[in-house]
Every structure is written in C-alpha cells, then in structure tokens.
C-alpha cells in the first residue's frame, strides 16, 4: 500500500489536535457571541492570545515549589499522549494505538487534571485552591460515570479498545439504535459538559470567581505557563469531542488507508464534526442557566443514572 | 336460575340510576327494595351454585362465587335498611337532598360492583370489578367531607389504587402464562385457566400469584398492606363502614382465592398455601395486638377485620378441606357479625357523639335495646358460641390441627384468644360499666338523652344475629352443600 | 460479545428506556407543572411504542389502544391535573425527605432490582424484547419511590398514573394480544380513577388549603 508512512499518520494525530484545538475553542466563543447578538472575538483569537502569552514573562508565587511549574508541562504531555490512543484520523489501529485502551486514555486525562489541580493547590491562592478542590469533589462522581461508560463499551464490543467500538458502531444501524449505546453516549456528553467547564456546570470565561471550578485553577499562572494551560484545556476539549464523535456518535469519514488525500480529508472532517458539537454546546450554553454549586451533584447524578442504565439494559437482556 | 343471576347483576344498577335522580324518599325505597330482592336472589341461587353452577354470557356462578355473593348481598340488604334510619337523623339539614341522593346512589353502586366482581368470569373482569369497588368506596368514605374523612379517603384511594396497580401487573403476568397455552387471543376466563392447570408455565404463575396476593391483599387488608383500613373504616359513615368491612374485604379476598385456585392447579398446593399462611399469620399477629389497646370503637372493629382476614388466609393456607369449608363459612359469618357490630357501634357513636371508647360508658342505661344488642354482636364477632363464627373458627382450627401445619393452628388459637380479650373487654366496658362516676359526668356523658334509635336501625342487627345463630346452630343443608362444594373447588376439584 | 438486538428491538428498547428516563425526570423535577407535563410525555412515549408494535408486529388492535391512551393519558388527564393546579395556585412539589441526588440513587437501586428480578424470570415474548419488561418493572419501582418521597397530593397522584404507564408498558411486552375490550376497560377504569383522584385532591385542597400531605397525620394507631 502506498501513501504516507505509518509514523507520519501516527504523528499527525496529536498534531491535528494540537493545532486545531484553539480554533475550536475560538469558534465556540464566536458562535456564542453571535447567538447573543454580539460580534464576539475572531475565530482565530485564541491563537493570537497564545502567541502573546508565550512572549510574556512568567511569574510564580513565593513559596511555590517546582511542582507549580512542572504541572502545565506535564498536563500538556498528557494531552499530547491521549490522541495516540484514540481513533482521531484512522479507522484502523495505528501501532501506538495499542499502547493503552480507553481506560488508559481516561487515566492519562485524569493525570493531567490531577497535575493541574496540584499545581493550583501549590499557589496558596484561595480561588485556585477552591477550584481544584471542587473539581476533584465532583470528579469523584464523574469518574464512575466514565467507568460505567467504559463498561458499556466493553460489554458491547467484548474489548475496551476505542477502535473496536468505533468499528462496531459503523457496522450497522442496529448498533446505533440500541439503548445502551444511546445512553452511554448521552452520559459521556454530560461528562464532557462538566469536564470542559460549560453551562450548566460553570460559565465559561466568566468573571465570577465564586462559581468557578475549571477556570479558577489557572489563576496564578502567567506567561508561557498560562499559555500551556489554556492550550491544554482547549486540547482536552477537542480530545473529549473526538472520543464522543469518533467512538460513539459518528465514526464515519475516518481514513481507512494511508493515502495523503484520505488523511487530509479525515482531518477536515474531524474538525467539521468537532465544530458541529461545538455549535451544540454553544446552543446549550445560551439556553440554560448555570446551576448553583450544590445542584451540580444533581447534574452529575443524572449522568451517573444514564451510564448505569446503559450497563443495566445491556447486561440484562442484551439491550 | 340464569334469570336470577341477571337480576342480581342488573337490579342494583337500576337502583343506582333511580336513586341518583329521584327524590330521597324514592331513592330510599328502591335501595331497600333492591337490597332485599338481591338477598332473595342470592339465597335462591344457593342450590344451583352448590350443584354444578351457572354460566350466562360473561357471568359465571360457581360455589365459591356463590358464597361471596351471598355475603355481599346480605350486607347490602341489612345496610340498606339501616341506612334509612341512619339518614333520617340528618333529615331536614341543609343540603340533605343532595347528600341523600349521593349516598344512596353510591351505596347501590358499591353493592353492585361488589356482586358483579364475584359473578364475572375472567380475571381481567374481576380486576375491573374490584377497581370499581375502590373508586366508589373511596368517594363514599369522603362523602362526609370532614378533614379526617378526606385524609382517610386520600390514603385509601392512593394505597388501594397502587395495590390494584400491582394486581393489574399480576393479571397481565397471568395472561402471559395463559397465552403460552392458549395463544394470544383468550379472555383470562377462570374455567379455561383451571383447565390448563399444570400446563401453565410455573414461574409466571407464581409471580402472578404473589403479585395478586400483594395487590388484592392491599384491599383485603392483609398486613403489611393494611394501613389504609382502620382510617377508612373509622371515618366512613357507618353503613359504608359495615359494607367496607363485611363485604368489600371479602370480595377482595375472593379475588385472592381465584388466583389461589389457578396457582394451585398450575404449581401445586405447597407454594400458594405457604404465601397465604405467611400473610395470614402476620395479619393475625399485628391485628390482635392492635385490638388489645385501641381507643376508638370503629378502629377497634377495623383491626378486628384485619384479624379476620388473617384467619381466612391462614385457613386457606392450611389446605385441609375442613378448614377451607370453615373459611367459606367464616366469610358469611364475618359478614353478618361485622356489619352488626359496626351498626351497633354506629348507634353508640351517634348517641354519645364520640367514637372514643373511654368516653362511652353506661350504654346499658341509655340504650336499653341497642346496647345489649351491640354487646351480643361483639361477642358473636369474638367467636362465642352459639354464633356462626364459633362454628367456622372451630372448623378451621380442627382442619388445621388435622393438616400438616398443626403448629400454626395453635398460633391461630392463641392469637384469636388475644383478640377476643381485646374486643370483649372494650365492648363490656362501654356497655356495662356505669357512667355514674364523677369524672365521666364532667365529660358531659350525663347530659346524653335516653333515646333509642328508630327500628330501622335495630331490625338489621336482629336479622344479623338471627342469621348468625342459624349459621352457628344448624346451617341449612343447601348451604352446607355450597360450602363443601366451595371447599372442593379451592382444593383443586373445581371445574 | 453480546448478541446484537435487531433494529426493531433496539428502537423499542430505546423508547422503553425513554419511558424510564421520564420517570426519573419526574422524580427530579421540583415543579408540579413540569411533573404533569413529563407524565404527558411519558404517556406519549407509551402510545408511540404501541404504534410501533402495532405496525411492525401486525397487531391492529393496538392502533385503537394507542389512540385511546393518547387521548386519555396525553390530553385529558394532564389537562385535568393542570386545571387543578391552576386553581390551587401551588407550584413547588412538596420537598421530599431525600435530596434529589439521593433520590436518584435510591430509585436506581429499586429500578435495578426490577431489572434483575425480571432477568431471573426467563419470560419470552412474541412481540417485544424482554428488556422492555425489565424497564417496565423498573418504571413501576421508581414510581413507588416517587410516591414515597414526595409529600404532596399531585406528585403522589402523578406517581400512581405513571405506575399505570409502567404496567401498560409491561402489558405491551407480555400481553399485546389481550382482547381489545379488556384493554379499553382498563383504560376506562383509569379514567374513573383519575376523576376520583381529582375529586379527592380538590376536597383535600378545599379542606386544608394546601396540596401538601405533610399534615395528614391525624389518623394513626
């Protein structure tokens, strides 16, 4: 088979995520602004922001240890590793794709968020600590949700490789219509809303410190480190969207060969699908109110309900 | 004979229509007429029910149905007469015409639904019949529109409806069990299900039976689903209480027995008997304890109903033919005794304007006729000879001792004795202990006038006592045949 | 690897899952009005399922049943209850004894119990996959939780009505061939029960000037 070398395709996966992630964030911000009747920032604004931040100096609070500075880098490394494991561009498993399964991907994502939380806790700033403790509190419920989603996937496919799940979904309409699949996808979507700090959990880019979870954690960072963190959270968003799209909702349009044209098409399609999801998220952002902090448990409990029901229907009666 | 069956299914309904539109006097007359004629029909149907049974359209009468129809018709007849006197006291009050119309229509509809529930052929129709009894009786409980009555009615309608929801689930599961034998389109007819017998799949039949016991048992007042019962019985107008306790509980238990029949035919006797025994003993135990320490006379009688339903369940659970026949006799005797006791308690409660036992004293002095009658009715209810309940309980215990579950028969005797103590002391205190003590006088008891209620309210109690003596001393041959036949049907010999 | 259900089974199961989810939503929602609306949605789903079964499995009686239950449970019953709510001028459901998240967890346990129980039964149906039966039993279980934890007449009544929806769902699975006349009689009975519930709710409201059942504690012992 001709075409690009496998290693190139492999490298293209994290690269795509790396490059496209700020754009997707920018697109959501623009779309939201337009829906509210504002002009909003340019779609490319996040790139300019990053460029500016990288040129600035960086300050660390007095007393913060090396962990504070290591955290953004570690998070970035994690976010670059995960795209190697999931089907970003290809429908066939790439060599490094077998390094870890969907659980492995989940663990690496958690490691990233753990690193950020620890880094935030290093600062001694009340808001940053508030954010990291809150995020870990609610994560205690979202983590089991992710586990149940993984169980559902594992029960459907017999393996927990994301590639296998995508292939199963592609195999026919009967696979898409089964309730366990729909429930697991819905649960995952709710978790993504939580993880990416969207309404109804948290107002993205708000200035109200009391309601912050995800956003509060980067308060004390500045310069290139802050750039890494923002970039990282944009990548996390795109990675989660990719899992939702390419594993659950629409695993079509992935490249089945190594042809350059196919791979490029896959990149374009991935970005397009991510933008569609982003649009949906923007609509949700504009249609609902932020929940009170104590109501967030109810939100994640709903996700938990969906995920558990997915496993139930599957385990009892093959639904 | 088939004509009588149709009369039984149509006449009370005609009375509903008439009493809903006609003036109260007409409604009264046709209620009494319908009650008495229904009782006559039910009695006339005893021989044919005892010897072979009848089937007209979707109506079906076998011995089991015959027993329960007789009980329902008897209570209907006596309460319709009693209601005349009961309503007379309110006559002339504002809104009386409307109240009386509703009352009579409701009473007739209630009786009609109960008799129809016993007469229809098919578990689905049975469910519908029992559901109608629920909605009608809930409205009747709430008819006085006091705060207590609406509380009781709400609890009743919610619990009973939920119970019937479960029973509906049971019905559907039973349909499923039957459809594996007969295919999709059949009508859950009892005859067919009994014919299928052992060919029915076991697990669904068991499930259906348990769901039916829980569901219909809620309405029959089996513990732990009995919680609505004391409230509804205590807050309803007395004639309605008598019907609730004397016949509604029995009709609900009839539904349980139908499922018992099918389950017995399908999965053998052990499992259904065990289930009934468990619920029965629980009901007996709890009710006997509550009867011992009760402050409200109508609640006292209500808990006694729970106890008697427990006795029925235990009796059928024994599985001995003698005990089953005793259970059916018990249904009749309990219907007569409990309606008597409620009617007597109603007179006391009206005279003293309270239902609290501690404030009713010296009834003998004030009500020289109806107070002793109440006392006798309670003694009959507490299974003193020579009344019917003594005979039936004797049969049940004898049958139980002869069966493999003799130990439970001993428990039954102990708990029944406990309940007897509670009932007898409470009633004796109310009737015999004089009210001369100053404490009671200060409560205003002395100001209560000596006034016997009208004969409308005394005659039914006399009739009931006569029936109880008849059942206790020498049941007619046809009736004995009916009971024997019914016991055989319960024992798996039904056709 | 589990066997893949057919498209028909998947669709019907998905509808049945939605019925269960609306039941959970009823448990979560705080507004009485939205509770009634959710009931209407749930009834609509059950009717839709009846239509799907009627079309695919060729059981023409179910069309009539679906139409009737649509008219009754989606239009008449919610309308009656909503009218009562308008008159009663109450909006918030009687807050339960549990927080919403714990309610969901308890209901999940109860529902799961229903699932496992049905799984043990080995009931097989001609018209629908058994998953739907498990879901129906779960709906019944969750409606029990709803009636227990909520303390106002509307929630309790809606809980009962939705229990009936669960039973309807079960009857679609195991008793789709039940003679139409009986099904209609069941529905008619429901209507009567609804009228009685409505009447008693009105009585309750006129007596106590509230929809809460917290004060119904006079009768005991």
TrEMBL record, chain B:
> Which InterPro entries does the record associate with it?
ComplexI-like_HydComp, ND/Mrp_TM
| NADH:quinone oxidoreductase/Mrp antiporter transmembrane domain residues | 123-419
Q: Does the keyword Ion transport apply?
A: no
Record's keyword annotation contains Ribonucleoprotein: no
Its transmembrane ranges are 63-87, 107-130, 156-186, 207-228, 240-260, 272-291, 311-333, 367-388, 408-432, 453-473
Compartmental location: Cell membrane; Membrane
Q: Which Pfam families match?
A: Proton_antipo_M
Q: What is its main location?
A: membrane
Which parts form a coiled-coil structure per UniProt? none
Keyword terms, alphabetized: Cell membrane, Membrane, Oxidoreductase, Transmembrane, Transmembrane helix
Membrane topology is: Multi-pass membrane protein
Recorded protein name is NADH dehydrogenase FAD-containing subunit
Task: Identify the species of origin.
Answer: Streptantibioticus parmotrematis
TrEMBL record, chain C:
UniProt KW Ubl conjugation keyword: no
Q: Which UniProt keywords apply?
A: Cell membrane, Membrane, Transmembrane, Transmembrane helix
Q: How does it sit in the membrane?
A: Multi-pass membrane protein
InterPro entries assigned: HyfE-like
Q: Where are the transmembrane segments?
A: 6-26, 38-56, 62-85, 97-118, 130-149, 184-203
User: Is RNA-binding there in the keyword field?
Assistant: no
Which cell locations does it reside in?
Cell membrane
What is the name listed in the Swiss-Prot or TrEMBL entry for this protein?
Hydrogenase
Organism of this sequence: Streptantibioticus parmotrematis
């Amino acid at each position: 088979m001709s075409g690009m070398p496998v290693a190139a395709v492999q490298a293209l996966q994290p690269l795509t995520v790396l490059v496209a992630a700020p754009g997707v964030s920018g697109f959501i911000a623009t779309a939201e602004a337009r829906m509210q009747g504002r002009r909003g920032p340019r779609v490319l604004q996040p790139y300019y922001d990053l460029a500016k931040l990288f040129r600035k100096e960086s300050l660390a609070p007095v007393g913060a240890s090396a962990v504070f500075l290591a955290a953004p880098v570690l998070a970035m490394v994690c976010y670059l590793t995960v795209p190697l494991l999931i089907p970003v561009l290809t429908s066939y498993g790439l060599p490094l794709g077998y390094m870890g399964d969907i659980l492995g991907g989940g663990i690496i994502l958690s490691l990233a968020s753990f690193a950020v939380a620890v880094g935030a806790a290093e600062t001694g700033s009340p808001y940053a600590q508030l954010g990291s403790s809150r995020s870990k509190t609610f994560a205690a419920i979202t983590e089991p949700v992710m586990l149940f989603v993984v169980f559902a996937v594992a029960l459907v496919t017999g393996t927990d490789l994301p590639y296998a799940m995508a292939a199963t979904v592609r195999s026919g309409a009967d696979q898409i219509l089964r309730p366990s699949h729909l429930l697991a996808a819905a649960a995952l979507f709710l978790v993504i809303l939580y993880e990416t700090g969207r309404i109804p959990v948290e107002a993205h880019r708000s200035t109200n410190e009391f309601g912050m979870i995800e956003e509060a954690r980067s308060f004390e960072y500045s310069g290139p480190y802050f750039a890494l963190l923002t970039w990282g959270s944009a990548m996390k968003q795109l990675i989660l969207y990719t899992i939702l799209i390419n594993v659950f909702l629409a695993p079509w349009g992935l490249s089945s060969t190594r042809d350059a044209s196919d791979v490029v098409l896959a990149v374009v399609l991935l970005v397009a699908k991510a933008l569609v999801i982003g649009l949906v998220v923007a609509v949700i952002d504009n249609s609902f109110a932020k929940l009170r902090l104590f109501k967030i448990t109810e939100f994640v409990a709903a996700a938990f309900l969906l995920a558990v029901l997915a496993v139930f229907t599957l385990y009892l009666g093959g639904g | 004979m088939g004509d009588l069956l149709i009369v039984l299914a149509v006449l009370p309904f005609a009375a509903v229509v008439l009493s809903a539109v006609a003036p109260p006097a007409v409604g009264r007359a046709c209620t009494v007429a319908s009650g008495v004629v229904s009782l006559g029909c039910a009695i006339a149907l005893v021989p044919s029910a005892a010897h072979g049974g009848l089937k007209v359209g979707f109506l079906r009468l076998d011995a089991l149905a015959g027993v329960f129809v007789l009980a329902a018709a008897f209570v209907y007849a006596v309460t319709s007469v009693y209601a005349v006197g009961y309503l007379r006291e309110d006559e002339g009050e504002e809104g009386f015409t409307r109240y009386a119309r509703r009352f009579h229509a409701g009473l007739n509809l209630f009786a009609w639904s109960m008799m129809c529930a016993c007469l229809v052929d098919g578990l689905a129709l049975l469910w519908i019949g029992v559901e109608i009894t629920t909605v009608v009786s809930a409205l009747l409980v709430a008819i006085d529109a006091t705060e207590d009555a609406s509380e009781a009615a709400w609890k009743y309608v919610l619990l009973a409806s939920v119970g019937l929801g479960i029973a509906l689930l049971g019905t559907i599961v039973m349909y499923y069990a039957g459809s594996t034998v007969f295919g999709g389109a059949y009508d859950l007819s009892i005859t067919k299900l009994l014919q299928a017998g052992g060919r029915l799949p076991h697990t669904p039949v068991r499930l259906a039976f348990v769901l039916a016991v829980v569901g219909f048992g809620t309405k029959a007042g089996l513990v732990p689903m009995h919680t609505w019962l004391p409230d509804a019985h205590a807050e309803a107008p007395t004639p309605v209480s008598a019907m609730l306790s004397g016949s509604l509980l029995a009709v609900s238990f009839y539904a349980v027995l139908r499922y018992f029949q099918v389950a017995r035919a399908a999965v053998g006797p052990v499992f259904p008997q065990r289930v009934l025994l468990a619920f029965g003993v629980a009901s007996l135990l709890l009710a006997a304890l509550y009867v011992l320490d009760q402050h409200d006379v109508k609640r006292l009688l209500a808990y006694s109903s729970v106890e008697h339903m427990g006795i029925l369940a235990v009796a059928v659970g024994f599985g001995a033919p003698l005990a089953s026949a005793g259970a059916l006799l018990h249904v009749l005797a309990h219907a007569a005794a409990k309606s008597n006791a409620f009617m007597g308690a109603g007179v006391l409660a009206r005279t003293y304007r309270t239902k609290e036992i501690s404030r009713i004293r010296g009834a003998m002095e004030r009500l020289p006729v109806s107070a002793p009658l109440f006392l006798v009715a309670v003694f009959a209810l507490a299974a003193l000879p020579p009344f019917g309940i003594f005979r039936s309980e004797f049969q049940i215990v004898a049958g139980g001792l002869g069966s493999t579950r003799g130990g439970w028969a001993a428990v039954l005797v102990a708990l029944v004795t406990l309940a007897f103590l509670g009932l007898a002391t409470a009633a004796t205190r109310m009737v015999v202990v004089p009210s001369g003590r100053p404490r009671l006088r200060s409560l205003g008891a002395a100001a209560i006038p000596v006034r016997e209620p009208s004969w409308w309210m005394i005659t039914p109690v006399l009739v009931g006592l006569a029936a109880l003596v008849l059942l206790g001393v020498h049941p007619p041959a046809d009736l004995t045949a009916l009971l024997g036949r019914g016991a055989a049907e319960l024992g798996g010999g039904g056709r | 690897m589990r066997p893949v259900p057919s498209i028909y089974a998947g669709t019907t199961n998905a509808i049945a899952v939605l019925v269960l989810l609306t039941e959970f939503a009823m448990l979560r929602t705080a507004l009485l009005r939205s509770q009634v609306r959710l009931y209407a949605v749930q009834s609509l789903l059950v009717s839709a399922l009846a239509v799907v079964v009627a079309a695919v499995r060729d059981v023409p009686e179910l069309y009539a049943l679906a139409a009737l239950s649509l008219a009754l449970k989606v239009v008449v019953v919610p309308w009656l209850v909503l009218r009562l709510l308008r008159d009663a001028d109450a909006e918030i459901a009687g807050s339960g004894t549990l927080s919403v998240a714990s309610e969901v967890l308890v209901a999940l346990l109860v529902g799961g119990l229903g699932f496992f129980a049905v799984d043990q039964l080995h009931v097989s149906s001609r018209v629908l996959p058994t998953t739907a039966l498990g879901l129906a039993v779960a709906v019944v279980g969750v409606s029990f939780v709803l009636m227990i934890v909520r303390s106002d007449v509307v929630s309790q009544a809606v809980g009962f009505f939705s229990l009936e929806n669960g039973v309807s769902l079960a009857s679609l699975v195991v008793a789709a061939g039940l003679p139409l006349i009986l099904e209609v009689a069941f529905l008619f009975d429901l209507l009567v029960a609804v009228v009685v519930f409505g009447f008693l709710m009105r009585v309750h409201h006129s007596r106590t000037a509230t929809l809460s059942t917290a004060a119904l504690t006079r009768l005991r012992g």
